Amino acid sequence: MGPGVYSGAISTATYTTVPRVAFYAGLKNPHEGYEILKFDDVVTNLGNDYDGASGKFICSIPGTYFFIYHVLMRGGDGTSMWADLCKNGQVRASAIAQDADQNYDYASNSVILHLDTGDEVYIKLDGGKAHGGNSNKYSTFSGFILYAD
After folding, report:
1. Is residue 81 situated within a structural domain?
2. Locate the C1q domain: which residues (predicted)?
3. 28 by DSSP, 3-state: which?
4. In the 8-state DSSP scheme, what is residue 55?
């Protein structure tokens, strides 16, 4: 080979796009008893997997996800409130708030879960009263994808 002629492999860069799935929603209205909390004040919903009307995140991209929730208890009557994070009807995280000397308390928890397409994740009240904050976002539910399969 002469001057200016080179031999060797050509390098190429490979780019991968990471799926964008993330949501953040607040609870507008109070709930009580045993029901799925409908965090209906949806602020962020990349990927549109969260449905504020049902309160459910329905997975469209299989992978590993992070979820966190904070539920403000409406107290003042000496009661407690339980809030469970459920995946397909099975409790995967629980939190309790107790009314002792104050009128309000928080129940909070976070999880990392593997989800398949169609899996549902939601927060279920398991007794007590959850405070809705109109537009104040006292009670919130959020999640995002960490790794796609």
Report:
1. yes
2. 16-149
3. coil
4. T
